[in-house]
Batch of 2 targets.
Target 1
Amino acid sequence: MEERELIRQAQAGDLQAFEQLVRGWREQVFRIARQIVGEEEGAKDVAQLVFIRLWQVLRRYREGGSFAAYLHRITVNLAIDFCREQARSTAESWDPAGMDTLPSPAPGGDASPSLGELQKIFEVVSRRLSPKQRAAFVLREIEGIPTEEVSEILGMRQSTIRTHVQEARRILQEALRRHYPEYARGSEDKQR
Amino acid sequence: MKDMRDPSDFFRALKEANPPEETWAGFWPSVRAGIREAELTRRPILTPARALLLGSSAGVMVAAAILVLAFLVVPALRMSPQPASLPAPALQASLPHPEENNFPPVLEELGSATARVYTFHVGEKSDATDVIFIVDESIDL
């Protein structure tokens, strides 16, 4: 069934139609939550909360607006709330000392990490980003969502989104250079 | 930055980092349970039945309010002294006539034989206000 029809039926209270919507979007919602929250279990909790919230507010969604942006906005907001809650409960912020203890790749090793390693590296180096920088980077640079839509999702101007992404790239590059020098080198440099 | 790896390129592959299928076991039942729980805790105060009851009693409540007004306000209006009917503008009406020794009209007598209270009605409608002068020979300035 077409997504628009599923949304219409779910708005009318059809849980089966809503389940199909959930199946269609759960991967992306999980991925975005995962990159913002920084861990798998938390991301799964956030993804569940996202769809519960979506069910509650779906009637307010008006056809014609971007459903993806609507859903992603809920995702980002709940993921950021989750991070704040975690930080409050553990009274823990970014820990540079902890970062230094993480294993670095073997010298001379392959500079293309596996997906699992890449995920771990991102979880570590992205701790230096503010929640908004992280959300902007994840949506724009990882998920490849156009700046215009990211601006709609985060409720910020496009220029602000570009600034957040630029700043995030600078911080991530610096963290990579410092903690994962093998991965930080560009292809040009590796050939030397 | 030229010879450094671009973090955007480096981390772009994370778009493919989908969790294994077993991650979703129990996902939908949890969402559905959450929806039910949320609906129970956020049940609206105005249920359809209550709305119907409220709607049917609204007419009775309005009628009761009108009766209360009729019993309380109307007698109160009857008992209160009727304000002197002053032609508009009020200030002009309060001003003395030339033949009255150039004194403003005396609106209230005080206990003192010589004291007088003069009230001027200034302005109209919401701007209307009273300016009161008390004059007595015994007041020592």
Target 2
Amino acid sequence: MTGADRLALSRPIDAPATTVVEMASPTRRDEARSAMAAAAALRDRGVPVRDLAVAVRDLDPYEEPLFRAALQYEVAPVFWTQLRVTRTRPYALVESVCEALAGNSVDRETLLRPLELRWSPATATGPDPRSAEWPIEPEAVHRAAELLPDGPRSPPEWVEAIESADGVDDRFRRFAEWIAAAPAPDPASVASLLGEAVEGYVDRGLSETKAADSPALLDTETDARAVVRVRTLVRQLRHKFADRLEAGTLERSWDDVADLAGVIATQRPGRREHSNARALDVFEANDVWALDVPYVIAVGLTAGEWPRPSQSVLPPEFQEAVLRGEGASGSLAPQPAWVGGRDRDQFADAIRAAGRCVVVTRHTRTPDGDDVARSPLLDHVDTRRVSEEARRRLVGADQELPPALREIVDGGSGGDRE
Amino acid sequence: MTAGRGETVSDGGGGDAAPLRLRGAQREIRDAYFASDAGLFTLDCVPGAGKSVVAHHIAAEDILRRYAAGDPTPEQHVAVVSFNRDEAADIVPAIRDRLRAIVEHEIVPAAADVSEAELRYLQQRVGQAPYAGTIDGFLRGIFREFAGDIGFDETPSVGNDALLKRVHRDCYESLRDDAEHDQRLRDLEAAYPDGEYDEGVGEMLSDALTYCRDRRLSTEAFRSELERTRDAAYPDGKPDSFDAIARSVERFVEGGGDGSEDGGEPESEAGERVREAVTGSDRDRLLGADRDLYDAWDARIDDFCRVLSAYRTRYRDAVREYGAVSHTDVAYLVDAYFDGPEERADLSEPLRSVDDSHRERVLRTYRSRIRSLVVDEAQDVSAVQHAALSHVVTSESRVFACGDGLQGIYLWRHADPRWFAAATTEGTYLGVDWDTHENRSATTSYRCVPDVAAGINAIAEPVFADPARGDLGDFDASYPRLDAARDGDDEPAVHVSSFDGVGHPGSATWANPDGAVGEANMLATHLSRGLADGTFRDDDGDPLGVTVLFRRGTRMAEYEEAFTAEGLRVRTATDALFDCPAVETVLAACEWLIAPGSPKRTAKLLTESPLCAVFDAASFEARSWDLDRVLDDDPAAVGEAQRRILRGLARLRDRSDAFGRLPASAYAEEVIEALALRADTHGCADETDPDQRVANLDALVETLSEWEGDGRYPPSELIDLVEPFREDPGVGPSQPSAAGAAYDVEFRTVHRSKGDQDDVVVVADPGFDVWSRGPHTRRFVAQGEVAGLAPPTNTEVPGDVPVPPFDGGLYDAGDGWGRDAGLRWATARWRDSAVDSESDSPSDSPDRDALVGPDRLRRVAGNERAEAWRLLYVALTRARDHLVVPLPRSGAETDLTRDRWLDAIRDGLAFPRGGTDSYGLRLDADPNRDAIDIGVNDADLFARRDRQTPRLGHNRVAESPPRRDRLDPWVPRFLSPSTMYPLTEDADRHALAHLLGEPLHTETNEVSGDLPLRFDRLGPEEVGTCLHDALTGLVARGVDERAIRTTGSEARAAFDEAVNALPKSVGVDEREGMFAFFEAVLGDFLDSDLWERIADPKTEVGIERSLDGLVEVGDLEVEIHGRADFVVESPTGERFVTDVKIALAEPTPETRRRYELQIAAYAFLAEQSGATDASVRRTVETFGAARETTASSWPPDIVHRRLRRLLDR
């Protein structure tokens, strides 16, 4: 980009003659439901799911509403974002084991946490791996939480306490003994002990997830992705723990192991492919550029959301000088994002990605009832607006496709771009 | 309701429509603004005069001029702020539109210098304008620059009500835990106990802190305000005689002089009456009580101020600890930061010791950036906002402020219209006494039609001229008559809905009586018939927008019921979000999830939450509140709906481990799903309208997410956080409107309608008492310069001794429904009625319209009343085409013109008692009309609406719950040829391994004991994979036959490399066993055709070649990603694709089928890529415990059939 090009950042968007259908809903969650109802209605009219994609400028505020809306309209969604591994059960299990091992004594909740998270003895050390004994049923764990004494205790004391508690079964004792028998943390024991916990989960925890899951295996897939990640994490932990011990930046304690695991886990790896052929792809806008699908549903076309105001720390005067290529700053690389150019490009990409039609959605008010303005990016394209009545029919029981979309679906290849 | 633009034409968005042009005062002030480089320019406007239009124009033109003059970043130099959030959201789009209009129509000369491309670029830059929005938002931006300097770790969240409540609660509780303050707090709590309508000490402290920050007061200065108020209630100090009490009565009732100093003869009727009423020992009792009250009050003021001082200190720390501040805090901190310790002796750490150079730098940046400041709704700016804004403005700046003092309705939020008044009249504003100062008054309204303007004038002019109403307070209320610029027609534009009043005006019965037509019923009928017969339709026959405005939310429910009964769709936002069964259920379930195994909690959930309506407690109690026992032991004991709820709860319990890791907004959704609350199929939240229920649950989740920010609240913390709102839903957020965009009528409070307008405006519920909930009912008052703490309520006051005319005697806080709280606090009594009630003397004294009570408190009460009348004015002036008011036909009520909107409207419109017919209203010197027609119930009562939009069904989400079990089963999206067989054979069984990227096992034969393999650390699978890798590695190294046959060092190296790459270390014996077996494998390999082809120097050998493709099956796509071990190409073009398997046992028939399919898949992929397949051979070679060559007999399209099988399962 050159200085003189800065005006290009606001040139009308040069989009092919794709139809753009605009749908405004009252709130963000209504918007998410409108978007997913549209996807479902298109699918139900014979549009293959792979011919549909949802694009969002920033998934953070939209992932949860879109996920819920998708379930409502019986669409299995997949979000092409990095897995938040720290929010997954396999990771929490590893963390909780470290916490149960940390210090000289732990309280009841900390002790029981790994069991809540389906800790099971690894196949190698436990009895029959297919035994129905493990993991301990959640209700038994909750019951034990009521029956066991409160207050911190050392692992051997816990073994005693469990033995003398009425109604707490033997599996709790076995777990407490496992904790009591755990070695001091060194790179090898960390890897083997935590590895054992993870493999125990693979053997018996994961199948619980699958058993309770829907046929689309939404939770199972996430859980399995997490297991793959946590297996890697435990391997890395061994080496990084050794390095840190050597460098003297860590103590030889389970607390520090947990911290280190947290550090590794939050260094997010790249996206992983999603495994369900029947799932609807939901992308962030920066992943849309290479896409080529007939129908794109672009979500969140409100001012402030898409485009989002520039977050640069550089003074705007300096940014503009660079954009203009003036003076000494002329040799610096201008950032289109400074004037919303990147968001604009991504919007243009979303439009170009669509072979037949783009549905743009937006919401008109905040949770507090304040108005939310339409995205200025929509000024660049001619849109066909869906009436509120048609939108209500779409999200209603009959899921009736709005006329503007119906025409395109029924119109054969007429809407194809060249 | 639409945002007010108050102009004549066009939406300003360019296009073919004629552009909007400024006129009259609008134009004059704009001309003045651009004629000077610096100065103050104010526009004092009537409603609808287009002040926002002028503000947006000035901002747009200023930006454009700067751009044309060579400023590359003009949007950085023009700040545009408004008090009103809705309007603030419109600023940027409005400026962008205005820029386009200015350029396209060359409205100003600078426009000629800007090309279309530049205009677009400029518009885009304006989209990023940093200083356009609410005043709060603007100040927040400044605050972020230095938050770190004054002890905040990160940028704190601003205006997070939940967190701020917690901050205040923590501050209060920590004082309770502190021996130094505990006793004082106990005394205060005893003196000011919590009550349904009474603030507790905690809230009083929190209000006092906000007030001090708003007024920039030290606690000592605050104390003297409280003392002055107390002194005003005891003008002679601590009473030393009964006469002193009588003198206070005289002064408070009759106003004026200091009373008699010598205790001599009574000078007034009021004094005389009290002396008559209190005689003998009662005088001593009264005096003793009054002296005690004086002392106790003094002591409580001292307690309050000492506790407040500590409270402020704690608050300072707590906001930093929690990372949460209020909007007032932000303004306060901006002002304090820029003031610095030299200006402000009262500042404490860390504000005292901030880095001066950084402060100077921030200030310089802002002052150099903000060259122009545009302030909309300037009458609503508070003292501390004004102070904070003052820092960024210098006498070199150009300031445009527009507002309307008569629309000042935020005194209660410490808005101070006097700043704007001083700006317009004296030219002082934002700390500058401006050399250049221009003010214009705009009285032309572009909003309403002439009849509406005339009707408003008829009502409002007498109100503002009345020293008992609009002109009662400190603020100058001179009324400029509205002069409508729009044309009108001959049809009535002012309407009265006339009805027989039943009961007391303002009561529920009055609004919607059983079996009779009340205020709301008549209005609903009038509107609905008027929408049907065309009265409230536009020229095209489309229904007009209708907004019903309320002073308070109290009667909205009765109104909504009446309107809905009339078939009108109402959009409203009134009830508390936390006061709705669905939301209560979610929170009760979250509370239970803190420890779902606890029988006590389960009992609480099932008996105290809305779920209790569904369950019979007995059968649970009998089973120790154990969900599983209830479900398992006696299936007949619970019905289907209950069972589903129980299963939902059990599911939540079983997943509760996840709720510590997820944001509260996410697990709240889990609860909603598990209990099917949006659709409420189980009937636990059926009190609510389905769409409203969905909107409420949506709002709950959004609110939690907003409160949570980047943090995460596990159930225990969430419940702690929402506790104040569950306890008192009224202090929390309101329920959102569920009407979506399809509604006939919108209900709003007048405060929320500020800045907006609508075609038809209804002033609802005008019969309330203006004085109710006035300062006489409050324990803590804070308004402008006056702050006061009421006398303590727990001193002994002889209730049997009257102190006429005070109903409360000496002092009685009472229930808050009377007009006074006794002699020593504020009242809502008029002087004449106070006197009249006791005697027959004439009430036409010049002071008849003064209030009774101590002067400072009279001021507070007077200002509040004046604001209530300004509120009426704001309500009336929202109307564009029609103004509708409900008035009773009955006339028996006493005239309460000074105390009720109802009477003021009736008087203004000269509505006759018993009036049922439309009539003409003659007007005197109105700029719009000599007379207007008032339509009374003027709609065809038999008209029926042919609804253009038939009632739509509910949102699906409100009717059927999400059903995960209805999602189509999982189908693998990515497949490999080698695992295609097992996965398509039994997807369910192999899904987990597939997802984990692990090998998919098929039935194999037992590994023979004859093999030299030990399986100490490695399983058969791992051994097979390892040796396979060793074999391909060997070929990749280009090792020759002799070296392989003798298993020389190269073969060994390839083997070791493969073993070393294993994640597990292998012992010597196991390793050697594997190597021995590897030697056997190599033997097979060398004897195979495969080796022959590889070894042939004329062939080209590819190792581990990718083979990818896409299969479309039905409407699905499945990607196939394969890898063939060897692809050998001969010079003749013949290709051999071979995959090698290392067998540890004799292959089973299933294994062979697996290989067959793998080969078929290769062929399929080749077909896909369009290769001619004639010269390709594909085999799987098995070496080791078995030696086989599999050459497929299966056709490639078997791939389709297998995948189809997956789909159809």
